[in-house]
Amino acid sequence: MQLSGEAKFANSVQHIWDALHDPEILKGAIPGCERLDLTGQGEYDVVMKLGVAAVKGEYTGKVKLEDVEAGAHYMLLAEGSGSPGHVKAKMDCKLLPTDKGCTLVWNCDAEIGGMIASVGGRVLGGIAKFMAGQFFKAIEKQVKNGGA
Amino acid sequence: MANLIGQSFRRKEDYRFVTGTGQYVADIRMDNMAEAAFIRSTYAHARIKSIDRSAALALDDVYAVITGEDLVGKVGLMSEMESHCRLPKHIEDQIKPIMKHNVEPVLATGKVKYVGQNVVCIVAKNRYIAEDAAALVKIDYEPLPAVVDPFEALKEGAPLVQDDLDDNMQAYFHLPVGSWEEAVSKADHVIKGRFTSPRVGSNPIETRGVVASYDNRTDFLNIWSSTQMPFEIRHYVAKLLGLVEQNIRVVAPDVGGGFGPKGGLYPEEVLLAYLAKQLKRPVRWIEDRMEHMSGARHSRDQIHALEVAYTKDGTILGVKDDFVLDVGAINYFALTCAYNSAAHFRGAYKIPVFDLTCRIALTNKTPNVPYRGAGRPEVVFAMDRIVDMIARELGMDPVEVMLKNIIPAEEMPYSQGMYYKDGGELIYDSGNYPEAFEMALEMSRFKEIRANQERWRQEGKYIGIGFSSNVEGTGVGPFEGAKVSIDPSGQVILHVGSSSQGQSHETVFGQVAGDVFGVSLDRVTVKNGDTVALGYGAGTYASRSAVNAGSAAHLASVKLREKMLAVAGNVLEIAPEELTMKDGVIYAVSQPEKKITFPELAAAAAPGMRCKVPEGMDPGLEATHYFVPPTVTYSSSVHAAVVEVDIETGFVKIKNYYIVHDSGRVINPMVVEGQVQGGFAQGIGTALYEEVVHNENGQLLTGTYMDYLLPTSMEVPVAVQGEQEYYSTRNPLGVKGVGESGAISTPAAIANAVVDALAPFHVKIDRLPVSPNRVFDLLQDAQSEEVIMPK
């Protein structure tokens, strides 16, 4: 499944870049995030409680940030599974400066399985974009509150 | 003698069905009953690295959390249904089949092979707790590359679905009838086509379900299952658990539809029996609809690459087909569907040369099993579509080409030059196909439609008419049994081995037996779906019950009637030949005052000092008969579909539909009509709506009825039916099967009607379902072709 989108921020590229690499901020921004533990350089163990369409459940997995170009371009690799199924996603994130701050452009390639695919597949695209929107809004809010 | 046969009696079972007093598996309640839930694979192909069940086991009121590894050495592996897989030697000599043994554990061990496969079973106080516990089990999978496309699966080096096999070609055969080269050399043209019937599900209104209980005192297992084959379930549960068959009773109570996929053994039946014994308490599992979509078996999924040699007047000289059947992760039914496809390919057409090659491919998908029609709708679609294409190539009316190739009535009985899968020569026993076709033309007002089509098109209405015919081998053996007795009350009690999933057994077999005893329908009680009643039974599938159980009921009743007359003769001191029976009284034809009632006769025949049974006969009024058909009987039908296509939206509306069918002698016309209409409804689903879709990773994308479209009553018009009644020569009643008839030709007739409606656009339909987006795409392609290469 291919998804893409962008988020506009009123903060500088560096501000947002730092926020996106800060475990505390990520924990507060990732929808349904119950736990986020740093396990290595840019690597986290994550526990999320999510409801996707009719499929609700707890997912445990790993998130890894790979910087392609510091301050501008990184890859987010996420893998998780729970009783309703599993997700494996590769998200390409680019931060571009704008007049008012910056824009994050993302492209995501996700593989889903189990009930998430068979029940939620049709509405998943919309829900994923909605959750991405929530995530970036929460980042912005925390940045504004001086979280980073 | 036939007072009841031939009459449209209201169904005896309907009162309880319409008043909500039927008893389905889910209605069964027992003290101390636990409930099971299953964790099913979310991967199409993956290695199971570990299963952590500690948190689930720690939950209160969880009684067991079972994995496949727990069952190794305790529960046998499921594999081919032997009684459906054996081929007679002479067929093996003709088709030289390859059939590889394949297996599935009741819970996955080592690796999972399809999304929906059972991996863990949880038993708890109730389903809520079981589901909560299921959410706490952590399964670590290592994904393996999944084989989803059957052609990719057959390639050398493809990942193996069944690890013990060398490749994914589970079965193969080649059937040559006549010389294809010779047919080609005589032909003016050879046309090619590739026809796809996708994977579909049967979607009974009642999902699957099992209740099992174990009685410690008698070491006896009771199993209730919404199955089509209680006797087979008993056999395989005994075999896989190492038990004595007669210490198991399998009951199929009221069952809300089966259609094929409820025939055969499922993991849940074996596992619940095992757990009831282990846990010493009844265990219940009712499949939910989401489980059903991936865990209950699918069907069809055939791709035919067809060549047809024909002359310029439209005479077909030969057919060559190379087809692939995608059987999913395991083949339980060997060549059942594939050989059915071969045996029904030419249907009502006289085609002397036939050359067919079949490959059955294993893929990482839910197993594929027979479903109403079982290999027939796929080939009737391919054949009648290509006949339609030939006609349009030649500038002839499709009806003309169909009629030119249909088997003339005077050539009956007609031999297709091959064997049926039961080993009998494939010879149509009776029927008149041209007459059926003419009836369909008349009923559908074909000429009137042809005369008006052009005018309607000018008004923007694209209306078309399409035809399809089929001949169906029905009433396949191996046998079916009936045991009939006279109760002390005088009631006739009839047990039949085939169970009902809605086919009206209690009414129809009552009519058969009632006629032999000269009693009304209310004096016959029919019992079915219970393995304690008879020693042997086969089941209800393959349009076989009226033929097999009906004939067994008739012949057992005839045996008992003779005995009753003999006993009555002994009591009344009159020669049995002078006696007859009516309304529960046996009397002398010449002196009606000399009589004895059924209750009196039952008492007279009871064992003891006063037993009046003649010397040499056993006491009691009871007779059993197992009917073994010589081979199948051949039902036939011609379908005519009139559709209107909206060329803006691609939407197909069925305006009128006609079915002329011959199911031999009709026991209950209303029941036959209902069977044909029901088959037609499922045929509409196949024709226009249904498709099980997996993505490239083998993930099921059609897991709900939002994505898997079924026709509702809104989309199913009443098919106008015409009847022929050519008695079968192969059973004492003259009946033929009718259960699948309605489903077989519907997709082909509707597809042909759509092509006809869109004749100005020259579209070719070679794939089902004929969904609005497919029609829309065909129209887009046709229009763009028109621009490049105007016709």
UniProtKB/TrEMBL annotation, chain A:
Lineage: superkingdom: Bacteria
Coiled-coil residue windows: none
Classification via Pfam families: COXG (PF06240)
InterPro entries: CO_DH_gsu, START-like_dom_sf
This protein's name: Carbon monoxide dehydrogenase
TrEMBL record, chain B:
GO MF annotation, one: iron ion binding
Annotated source species: Brevibacillus panacihumi
Keywords, in A-Z order: Molybdenum, Oxidoreductase
Listed SUPFAM superfamilies: CO dehydrogenase molybdoprotein N-domain-like, Molybdenum cofactor-binding domain
Superkingdom, taxonomy of origin: Bacteria
Pfam families documented for this protein: Ald_Xan_dh_C, MoCoBD_1, MoCoBD_2
Cofactor: Mo-molybdopterin cytosine dinucleotide
UniProt keyword Transcription present: no
Ranges for domain Aldehyde oxidase/xanthine dehydrogenase a/b hammerhead: 19-145
InterPro entries assigned: Ald_Oxase/Xan_DH_a/b, Ald_Oxase/Xan_DH_a/b_sf, Ald_Oxase/xanthine_DH-like, AldOxase/xan_DH_MoCoBD1, AldOxase/xan_DH_MoCoBD2, AldOxase/xan_DH_Mopterin-bd_sf
PANTHER family per UniProt: ALDEHYDE OXIDASE 1-RELATED (PTHR11908:SF132), XANTHINE DEHYDROGENASE (PTHR11908)
Presence of the UniProt keyword Oxidoreductase in the record: yes
Protein name according to UniProt: Xanthine dehydrogenase family protein molybdopterin-binding subunit
